[in-house]
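stage 2 :: seqdesign
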């Protein structure tokens, strides 16, 4: 279990299965953080898809996969600490991104720069610890 601090000093608890792989747990935590960040109030198929997209993009953004010159889901799993299943989804999303992206280094660099800034940014959700 982890606790996520949300807006207006609300605390949300996210539960995960300790018997899952670390990669799976990592994605689950990101998925639950996405629900908090996106302000989802109830379950829906759209909310699940949005949370999966957000989590996948937060953990393994296509611009970083491109920047690191990763060539397979296995390499994505290794670099970003994802399960093989999640890495497969991330790598497929990256392939779609490659097919539709504009070959513009400035845009790619700005995405990577935003990602790095995001890692450094003090945002409204903080990891408060886990129960292990
Ligand atoms: Zn969900």
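stage 2 :: out
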């Amino acid at each position: 279990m982890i606790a996520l601090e949300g807006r207006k000093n609300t605390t949300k608890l996210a539960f995960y299965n300790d018997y899952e792989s670390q990669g799976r747990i990592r994605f689950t935590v990101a998925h639950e953080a996405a629900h908090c960040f996106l302000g989802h109030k109830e379950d829906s198929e759209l909310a699940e898809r949005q949370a999966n997209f957000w989590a996948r993009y937060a953990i393994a953004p296509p611009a970083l996969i491109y920047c690191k010159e990763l060539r397979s889901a296995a390499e994505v799993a290794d670099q970003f600490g994802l399960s093989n299943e999640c890495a497969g989804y991330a790598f497929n999303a990256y392939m779609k991104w490659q097919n539709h992206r504009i070959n513009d280094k400035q845009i790619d660099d700005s995405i990577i720069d935003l990602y790095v800034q995001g890692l450094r940014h003090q945002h409204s959700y903080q990891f408060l610890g886990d129960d292990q």
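stage 3 :: structure notes
- DSSP finds six helices and three strands in the chain.
- The chain has one domain: 2-124.
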